């Protein structure tokens, strides 16, 4: 674990057993799922309800992760 690179950055941590080669970005009513494999793949979901669901899931994870 490294310290945040900026005073504007906040970090939280989940247990090391939680491994994922995927990245989730939530923005403007969209969700981008990026799989960082040998050949990266991405899926963009353009749906406000899905974006809100992922944002809710993020808030849950953030609130339960260690500082």
What are its keywords?
67 residues; alpha+beta; 3-stranded antiparallel beta sheet; globular
Could you walk me through the main structural features you see in this protein, from its secondary elements to its overall organization?
With 67 residues, the protein is α+β, with helices and mostly antiparallel strands. It has one helix and three strands. The protein has one helix at 48-64, and strands at residues 22-27, 30-35, 41-46. It has a three-stranded antiparallel beta sheet with strand order 1-2-3. The protein is globular. The mean pLDDT is 89.
In terms of topology, how is this protein built?
Blueprint: E1 22-27, E2 30-35, E3 41-46, H1 48-64
Antiparallel strand pairs: 1-2, 2-3
Could you give a quick summary of the protein structure above?
With 67 residues, this protein is of the alpha+beta class.
Mean pLDDT: 89
Strand order, biggest sheet?
Answer: 1-2-3
**Percent range of helical residues:** 25-40%
Overall SS class: alpha+beta
Q: Figure out the total of helices.
A: 1
Contiguous uncertain segments of 5+ residues: none
Shape type: globular
List how many beta strands DSSP finds: 3
DSSP strand content: 25-35%
Rg, nearest Å: 14 Å
End-to-end distance = 11 Å
Largest sheet: 3 strands, antiparallel
H and E order = EEEH
